[in-house]
C-alpha cells in the first residue's frame, strides 16, 4: 500500500466543476512495455510509443516494480552521469539509497521524493540499502525525467530531499479520492518540489466506484498514468488499467473514475499519477543520460564526462551491496 495515507474526510476538498469547465478528452492510450534497468530491476517504460511532442516537457518515465524481492535479490544502478535535465525518484513503497558527486543524497524511504537537477552535469548512484538487500522486501517507485529549457541546461547541480510528510494532501469533491501533490499546484494546493520547468506531479488513490475530477492549468499538457487498478479516464469514460498512459487534449479538468468492482486484491483502490507541464517546444537531442538541444552539445557532454568534468565519485562512495552468503 502507498506509504502516505490520510482520512480524506478531514482534508480540504477540490473545487467542484463549474458549468463552463471543459473536460479533457483522451487523444491516445498506450501500454508500457516491461523491461529492466540498472543492474536488473524490473520497470514499465511508461512513455514508450508516445510522440515526444505530446510528453513535452517530460522526457522519460519508468515505473520501478512493483516487486516483492527475496533476500539477496534487490538491485539498483551503479554510478552514472546526467546532464541537461532533472531526475525525480518517487518511492511509493520500499527504500532506495542515493548519493551524488556534489554531496547530495540520503535514503529515499516510503513516500519520499528525490529531486535532482543535473544541470551542467553530475554523477550519482541509486541502490537499495544493505538492509533491504539482506532481507528482501517490497520495491515500488517512479523515476521521471523533466527537461530543462536551453537557458537552464548548465545550471549548477542541485538536490532536493522531499519527505513524504511534506507532500500536500487534498481530497476529491466527494472524499472518495486522496491526491498527494509532490510538485506544482492543484486547485491552490502546492507541493514541496521546486522546479525550473513549470510542471505538476501528483499521485492519487481513488476508491472503488469513486470519481476524481481535478482542475488543471489550461496552458499545461495532461497525462494520466495508472500504477495499478482499473477504471476509466476522460468524459468519454475510456477504459484504462495498470501500466497504461492516457494523453489528454485541451480543457480545464482531468477526470478519472475507479471501477466499482474488479480492483487488484493487493491494492483495493486505483492508483494513478497525474502529470502535466508547460511545453518547452525546443529541439531535443538525447543520448542515454544526456538531454541537450543539439548534437554538438551531446558530443560535448560525452567528452566532458570522459574527461571527468561532470564530477568525481567521492572517496566515501556508496556502492551496490552484495548479500552475504
Automatic annotation (TrEMBL):
<dbReference type="Pfam" id="PF05726">
    <property type="entry name" value="Pirin_C"/>
</dbReference>
<dbReference type="InterPro" id="IPR014710">
    <property type="entry name" value="RmlC-like_jellyroll"/>
</dbReference>
<dbReference type="InterPro" id="IPR011051">
    <property type="entry name" value="RmlC_Cupin_sf"/>
</dbReference>
<feature type="binding site">
    <location>
        <position position="126"/>
    </location>
    <ligand>
        <name>Fe cation</name>
    </ligand>
</feature>
<feature type="binding site">
    <location>
        <position position="82"/>
    </location>
    <ligand>
        <name>Fe cation</name>
    </ligand>
</feature>
<dbReference type="Pfam" id="PF02678">
    <property type="entry name" value="Pirin"/>
</dbReference>
<keyword id="KW-0479">Metal-binding</keyword>
<dbReference type="GO" id="GO:0046872">
    <property type="term" value="F:metal ion binding"/>
</dbReference>
<feature type="domain" description="Pirin C-terminal">
    <location>
        <begin position="202"/>
        <end position="310"/>
    </location>
</feature>
<dbReference type="InterPro" id="IPR012093">
    <property type="entry name" value="Pirin"/>
</dbReference>
<dbReference type="InterPro" id="IPR003829">
    <property type="entry name" value="Pirin_N_dom"/>
</dbReference>
<feature type="domain" description="Pirin N-terminal">
    <location>
        <begin position="52"/>
        <end position="146"/>
    </location>
</feature>
<keyword id="KW-0408">Iron</keyword>
<dbReference type="InterPro" id="IPR008778">
    <property type="entry name" value="Pirin_C_dom"/>
</dbReference>
<feature type="binding site">
    <location>
        <position position="124"/>
    </location>
    <ligand>
        <name>Fe cation</name>
    </ligand>
</feature>
<protein>
    <recommendedName>
        <fullName>Pirin family protein</fullName>
    </recommendedName>
</protein>
<comment type="similarity">
    <text>Belongs to the pirin family.</text>
</comment>
<feature type="binding site">
    <location>
        <position position="80"/>
    </location>
    <ligand>
        <name>Fe cation</name>
    </ligand>
</feature>
Amino acid at each position: 500500500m502507498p506509504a502516505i495515507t490520510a482520512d480524506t474526510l478531514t482534508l480540504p476538498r477540490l473545487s467542484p466543476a463549474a458549468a463552463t469547465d471543459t473536460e479533457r478528452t483522451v487523444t491516445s492510450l498506450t501500454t508500457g512495455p516491461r523491461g529492466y534497468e540498472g543492474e536488473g530491476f524490473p520497470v514499465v517504460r511508461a512513455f514508450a510509443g508516445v510522440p515526444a511532442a505530446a510528453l513535452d516537457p517530460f522526457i522519460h518515465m519508468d515505473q520501478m516494480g512493483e516487486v516483492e524481492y527475496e533476500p539477496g535479490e534487490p538491485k539498483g544502478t551503479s554510478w552514472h552521469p546526467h546532464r541537461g535535465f532533472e531526475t525525480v525518484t518517487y518511492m511509493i513503497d520500499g527504500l532506495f539509497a542515493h548519493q551524488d558527486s556534489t554531496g547530495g543524497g540520503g535514503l529515499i524511504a516510503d513516500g519520499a521524493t528525490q529531486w535532482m537537477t543535473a544541470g551542467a552535469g553530475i554523477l550519482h548512484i541509486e541502490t537499495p540499502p544493505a538492509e533491504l538487500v539482506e532481507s528482501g522486501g517490497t520495491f515500488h517507485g517512479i523515476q521521471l525525467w523533466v527537461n530543462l529549457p536551453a537557458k537552464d541546461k548548465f545550471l549548477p547541480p542541485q538536490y532536493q530531499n522531499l519527505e513524504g510528510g511534506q507532500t500536500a494532501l487534498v481530497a476529491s469533491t466527494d472524499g472518495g479520492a486522496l491526491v498527494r501533490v509532490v510538485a506544482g499546484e492543484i486547485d491552490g494546493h502546492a507541493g514541496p518540489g521546486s522546479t525550473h520547468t513549470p510542471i505538476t506531479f501528483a499521485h492519487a488513490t481513488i476508491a472503488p466506484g469513486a470519481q476524481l475530477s481535478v482542475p488543471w492549468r489550461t496552458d499545461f499538457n495532461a497525462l494520466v498514468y495508472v500504477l495499478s487498478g482499473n477504471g476509466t479516464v476522460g468524459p468519454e469514460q475510456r477504459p484504462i488499467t495498470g501500466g497504461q498512459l492516457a494523453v489528454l487534449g485541451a480543457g480545464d479538468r482531468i477526470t478519472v473514475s475507479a471501477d466499482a468492482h474488479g480492483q487488484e486484491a493487493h491494492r483495493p483502490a486505483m492508483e494513478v499519477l497525474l502529470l502535466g507541464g508547460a511545453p518547452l517546444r525546443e529541439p531535443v537531442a538525447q543520448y542515454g543520460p544526456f538531454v541537450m538541444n543539439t548534437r554538438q552539445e551531446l558530443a560535448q557532454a560525452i567528452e566532458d564526462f570522459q574527461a571527468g568534468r561532470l564530477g568525481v565519485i567521492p572517496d566515501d562512495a556508496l556502492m551496490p551491496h552484495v548479500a552475504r552468503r
